[in-house]
Write a structure and sequence with these properties.
The structure is a single chain. Helix 8 packs across helix 10. The protein is of the alpha+beta class. The protein has two domains: 191 residues, no CATH class; 60 residues, no CATH class. Helices cover 37% and strands 16% of the residues. The C terminus is likely disordered.
Amino acid sequence: MPFFVSIYTDPFIFDNYPFTDYTNILSILFGVRGATHTFISLTLKSPYELSKENERWYEKNYSSIIENEENIEGFFGFGTAEDKNTDKGDILFDYLNGKVYENNQFISNASYLHNTYITDIIRGDNVFQNGVCQLEISEERYYYLLNIIRKELLDTYSITPRSDTISNPKYQYHLTDNNCTQWVQRMLNEIGVEQYLFHIDYVTIPEKYAGLYQYIYYTNEIIKKLGLIDNHLLTVEGVNTVKFWMRVNFYNLHDIKSHNFKDLSLFKIKSMLVQEFFGYDLVEMLKGCDDEYIALFPLQTVSIS
């Protein structure tokens, strides 16, 4: 069964949303036509396949993954938990309460008056038709990410527009220092998705992050192909090992395309890294070790032509 994590960028184009002074200020600050947003979905079919079944599949309101543990799909994102008229600070410059949201394909507007969130506006169709980076991942990585998101939803579940200032810096929202894009980056980093192979500096603006989608997709496709050689490479540990190895050995897309990936395995990649950084032969190093330690270095290698 395939498993997909997909990234979306909402440009908040004014043709789709009501014009406000707030979005106008952000457009001036960041050179885009409004406040942008990055969020993700977890689905058992790709957005492309889902759109063939129903063009507006994304309008589905998914049941909560914390209230219904049988549900393992949905849209998730991170944003400010405050009403834009909050007296706790300036929403443009200060650290404010943040919150992880479910059904983040809908815009969540905080209402201090009602101490709740209004989510009755679906994001524009262009978000789901043109601004998507869909990544097929292994079952292990899918459930690993699902459980991380579930924990963060629980951590911020009780936060409302009237909540006192929270102390955990992980959930303190900041427009440029801890925003929606950085939350998505952190989630994908947990499962080893390579986002910055050729870009050292982290991108914090959603629409600029969307410019990396082609690289994110391409490197994920390489991981999928390596999984045909050794399925250990599709685990969370395996993918993170491959990501580190790629960062050490490749400097541009041409290097990757021209590399011969035959006979690679998780053990072989670990061997090359140990040799490169410590000067040891991993096979020799493991001789005489107990079985529990050797199990950390899976030996499966399957050649493909």
